[in-house]
UniProtKB/TrEMBL annotation, chains A, B:
Keywords tagged on the record: DNA-binding, Transcription, Transcription regulation
UniProt superkingdom: Bacteria
A Pfam family that the UniProt record links to this protein: HxlR
Name of the protein: Transcriptional regulator
Taxonomic lineage: Bacteria, Bacillati, Actinomycetota, Actinomycetes, Kitasatosporales
GO molecular function: DNA binding
Organism: Streptomyces monashensis
Domain HTH hxlR-type: 24-122
TM region(s), chain numbering: none
Length: 134, 134
DNA sequence: CTGCATCCATAATGATACTG
DNA sequence: CAGTATCATTATGGATGCAG
């Protein structure tokens, strides 16, 4: 007879993956996903694969450094794939993996929310600032 | 006769709200939402209102400073409401607004994704690190 | 209890120039 | 084209002490 009941093991498993807990790795993963560039890159790749320079153009304002850094971590996390075509000049394509595709829907939804509800937020800010003068 | 055509105005309106564009305010809003504490606070409030100290306990690892800062920003943006009960000691409850509720579903989905797919990500990292030694 | 103000160390980010 | 290297700047976040 086990020293832990099934209920206890289930409780433990949930605790292990509760992102509210600080030490939990999923907390860190959530931190990764909570990145503006991550959202934009994943959203940009959602319609289909893209080249490095195309991403740089589509995501206006991203520096080469941040773009590379974001792409590297996403690749390492198995969310995107990187394909090098050794032509001249060299060509590199990035695409969502199946794992990345499962995430893309969620992040594009957040991005779409920001675009849709921006007016509401702006109105709320004006009201707040009026009621709470500096 | 207007100096801009309807098509031009439509194009302009879309450009104004395309979060891929850097100067676009929605880009900044997306940056706001792409915050670990924002995700956790909104997710924590999704089931129902909570007091300040309860939030601090539920979201392990958050300092009073960051908690207050996050709550203020969310309040200003119309995503949560703040209710003060002038008892002794004072009691402050935070709750999602309708706007916040519409966002909560999306952010909790991302949080749930992190918890669900963490094992996949971890496996991907091990593979990547094996194939790309330092 | 619920915060706000301040200081401070560190990490993240951005601009820029350069290379295979 | 697809990055890398460097440097300056900013943002983040924790610790602490105090106040309504």
């Amino acid at each position: 007879m086990p020293t832990t009941t099934a209920a206890q093991r289930r409780e433990q498993a949930r605790a292990d993956y509760d992102a509210f807990l600080r030490e939990c790795p999923t907390n860190q993963l959530l931190g990764r996903l909570s990145d503006k560039w991550v959202s934009l890159v994943v959203a940009a790749l959602a319609p289909g694969p893209m080249r490095y320079s195309d991403l740089g153009r589509k995501i206006a304002g991203v520096s080469p450094k941040m773009l590379t850094q974001t792409l590297r971590t996403l690749e390492r996390d198995g969310i995107i794939s990187r394909t090098v075509t050794p032509s001249v000049p060299v060509r590199v394509d990035y695409a969502l993996t199946p794992l990345g595709t499962s995430l893309a829907g969620l992040l594009t939804a957040v991005k779409a929310w920001a675009e849709t509800h921006f007016d509401d937020v702006r109105a709320a800010r004006e009201t707040y600032d009026t009621e709470n003068p500096a």
